[in-house]
Design goal:
Layout lengths: L2 H9 L3 E3 L7 H6 L4 E4 L15 H12 L3 E5 L5 H11 L3 E2 L8 H10 L6 E5 L2 H10 L3 E5 L8 H17 L2
Parallel strand pairs: 1-6, 2-3, 2-5, 3-4, 5-6
Length: 170
């Protein structure tokens, strides 16, 4: 296996959607997925905001109705923010997860009580969410960031990650 395909399997998401609420839960369920690990900032909410869009709330309700277990794994360094979002959504969470490191993902798998192959990691970042989930043997889903007005730094970071992912495609 060449370097390109070795890294590609960690940096190319299994699924890509414009928004969380566009994810086809039926397709995932038929594929054997039973758990979802969710990022918060720029995935479910704008950065450091406790507000979750109505469409995302509806999607989360459908995940529960269809039998998916959900959990939040976030790199946000303010545990009180993640705890607030967690309580509001009724989903367990961990802050300061240090993704792509494996500890937060291991905790999530233990909480979900599911094997990695039955879980999808959903996030907006290739080098944290996608890399971390893939390294643990989970499926991954990249969504576009929720924040519309990104800083120059964030724009550069997202552009680099997309370039890297495309460059590694076989």
């Amino acid at each position: 296996m060449g370097l390109r395909s070795q890294w590609g399997r960690f940096l190319i998401p299994d699924y890509m959607e414009a928004r969380v609420e566009d994810i086809d839960l039926e397709r995932w369920y038929q594929a054997g997925v039973r758990g979802v690990i969710l990022d918060v900032d720029d995935t479910l909410t704008t950065k450091d905001s406790p507000c979750v869009a109505a469409a995302v709330l509806d999607w989360l309700q459908r995940t529960e109705q269809q039998g998916f277990a959900c959990i939040i794994v976030s790199n946000n360094r303010y545990p009180e923010h993640i705890e607030h979002v967690s309580k509001r959504l009724g989903i367990p969470a961990i802050a300061r997860a240090r993704k792509p490191r494996s500890n937060g993902f291991r905790w999530a798998l233990k909480e979900l009580d599911l094997p990695p192959e039955q879980v999808v990691v959903v996030g907006d970042r290739i080098l944290t969410d996608i890399l971390g989930g893939a390294r643990m043997g989970m499926k991954t889903c990249l969504v576009a960031p929720v924040t519309k007005e990104l800083s120059r730094q964030k724009q550069t970071l997202y552009a680099f990650e997309k370039w890297l992912s495309r460059a590694l495609k076989p």
